[in-house]
Amino acid sequence: MTQEKELTDADYRALAAFRHAIRRFQSFSEGQAAQAGLTPQQHQALLAIRAATPEQATVGYVAERLILKPHSATGLVDRLVALGLVVREAAAADRRRVYLRLTPGAYAMLAALTAIHREEVQKLRPVLLDILGQLA
Q1: Using CA atoms, how far apart are residues 131 and 136, in angstroms rounded to an integer?
Q2: CA within 20 to 30 Å of 101's CA: 18, 19, 73, 119, which one?
Q3: CA-closest candidate to residue 77, choices 60, 59, 90, 61
Q4: Residue 106 Rama label (left phi>0; alpha psi -120 to 50; beta)
């Protein structure tokens, strides 16, 4: 068992700064999603589906990535389908298995949002690296 280092005032300041930076990014992200007509969860679900391999993109995967209960993820996906952003596709080998696919409109919307988010992450990078260095 390792001995825990006693926490210092600097540790608390660094952790507070880290949480503040994350919260600022989250607030930024929520605002960008809203401007695109999405809820933050819808944006995150689209991003998870886009990042998944074709065989991973299931409601269960969305639930895992968004830390949701399966029935909540099902409702979220249902709303994305109703918005015309996601389609369900039965697997060829096992018709009981359903994969999620983004529509062309979802790809375009997500590409624009991701470009904006990447710029924000690049701005935030030096701040986070500094804070992580303080926590090391």
Answers
A1: 9
A2: 119
A3: 59
A4: alpha
Beta bridge pairs of residue 87: 101
Instruction: Please report, in tens digits, the pLDDT of each residue of the chain (136 residues total).
Output: 455 789 999 999 999 999 999 999 999 999 999 999 999 999 999 999 999 999 999 999 999 999 999 999 999 999 999 999 999 999 888 878 999 999 999 999 999 999 999 999 999 999 999 999 998 8
Q: How far is CA 66 from CA 48, 49, 77, 105, in A?
A: 8, 11, 12, 22
Q: Tell me the pTM.
A: 0.89
CA 136 – CA 77 distance, rounded (Å): 39
Compute the Cα dihedral for 4, 5, 9, 12 and give only its sign. negative
Q: What class does CATH assign to 9-135? A: mainly alpha
